[in-house]
Amino acid sequence: MENSLYPLKFKAIIKDKIWGGTRLKDILNKETHNIDKAGESWELSAIQGSLSVVKEGFLADNDIEELIEVYMGDLVGDKVYEKFGVEFPLLIKFIDANDWLSIQVHPDDEKALRLHDSYGKTEMWYVMEANNNAELIVGFNKELDKSKYLEALNSGSLRNILNYEKVKAGDVFFMPAGRIHATGPGILFAEIQQTSDITYRIYDWDRVDDSGNARELHTELALDAIDFKKYDKYKEEYISKLNEKTNIVECKFFKTNLLEIDKEIECDYYSLDSFVIYIALEGETEIYYNDSKEPVIMTKGETVLLPAMIDSCMLKPISGLSKIMEVYIPD
After folding, report:
1. Interacting residues of 301 by C-beta distance below 8 A, sequence separation 6+
2. Domain count, the chain
3. Beta partners for 268?
4. pLDDT at residue 214 in the model
5. Nearest 5°: CA angle at 98, between 92 and 102?
């Protein structure tokens, strides 16, 4: 048992961004290089060039791809391994927006595979903190087609056709591939997404870098990827129940539950053929697994990968309330 799989933490990969801020350091205790431009903390990544590396235990310094090569279905689940091989299928991030991100859209699997030899990008956002009157863009505020959209884009009136949403802590937004979106300033959120780094930038608020260059836009690619339909609602509705799992998003790529606990709870994964990811949103929690005497302690801002071979565990808040997101690949 000494060298069997255990709940894994990974070294955060910090990405400096023109729109980043200080919340990753100030609130989530991340070690950031750039004092006020840390935009993203990649918590669990299989993106080439940014592979997550184990932080502690006997598997320290191994990357996620090496782990899957050795442990295969024991780590990720047999069906997951059969489908994705050594590529871990999800990318987990914390994002601190101190300014507007570019207005963007992501392709679906079919388009991404055909054009980029990549998976598409469906994602969800869980808002951890938001300034008063913080807002984001998701979808359109009217029914459109390509010609009406292009007319707005080319006339400089794109902003008039977008749907703006006020946000507060606890809000959840699901962004299927094809849905236009952008986060505004003053928002810290957790993002769960497919393993893909394909983004089509539509508009970047006329920003330029230190050399006076604007970032590349992907107008034609975006045009073929955008879902022009107007939806009745864009924010996910859920009611969290204390010490129970509350489903907040479920799609074919991932299922996400919220756990708000003030006492220990048992989690049974015996019939689940998938890894489980815990994202600590609030509080400190002990994770007891198998017959372990010593728990793994998870604190706010940490992400833990529970290998598929661990078929049950107990979560115990250390003091007060713990808030945890649970993520896995559904059957």
Report:
1. 27, 28, 29, 30, 94, 280
2. 2
3. 312
4. 86
5. 70
Q: Clarify whether 23 is annotated catalytic.
A: no
pLDDT at 191: 98
Residue type, 14: I
CA pair distance 315, 321, nearest whole angstrom? 12
Which of the following is catalytic: 23, 159, 179, 201?
201
Residue-range definition of the domain harbouring residue 307? 245-328
Distance CA 111, CA 60 (A): 37
DSSP letters along 77-128, please?
Answer: -HHHHHHHTTS-SEEEEEEEESSPPPEEE---HHHHHHHHSS----EEEEEE
Q: How far apart are CA 306 and CA 8, in angstroms?
A: 6
- Which portions of the chain are predicted below pLDDT 50? 1
**Cα angle 236, 52, 168; round to 5:** 25
Distance of alpha carbon 227 from alpha carbon 28, whole angstroms: 34
Distance CA 121, CA 226 (A): 13
Query: Quick one: pLDDT at residue 211?
Result: 85
**Domain-located, residue 176:** yes
User: What DSSP element (H or E) covers 183?
Assistant: strand 181-183
Q: Identify residue 199 by its one-letter amino acid code.
A: T
Q: Are 193 and 43 in contact (CB under 8 A)?
A: no
CATH of the domain at 174: 2.60.120.10
Alpha helices in 177-292 (DSSP H): 219-225
* Residue for token pair 């990318």: 91
Between the alpha carbon of residue 195 and those of residues 73, 157, 317, the distances in Å are 18, 33, 30
- Assigned token pair, 172: 């959840």
pTM listed for this prediction: 0.95
Determine contact, residues 14/32, Cβ cutoff 8 Å. yes
